[in-house]
Amino acid sequence: MTLLTLYSRPGCHLCELMLEAVLPRIRGRAEIRVVDIDEDPDLRVRYGHLVPVLSDGEHALCHYQLDVAALERHLSSVAP
Question: Fewest CB within 10 angstroms: 19, 31, 41, 80, which?
């Protein structure tokens, strides 16, 4: 199963909204881990004000808002 990563930070309203929007769309198709960028200086530099960022490995699918079409295309392309 595909593992998506949501790069976020605590108290980020956009991060909360993206997680809320992603969860029902990936159910049974992918798993998600939430990473607090403020816990890692490299991630803080890399993603800074772009959060939330939804990615699969090094491939960023979207940031700020969920791009449903991009998520669906990606999940279709990695489906077993």
Answer: 80
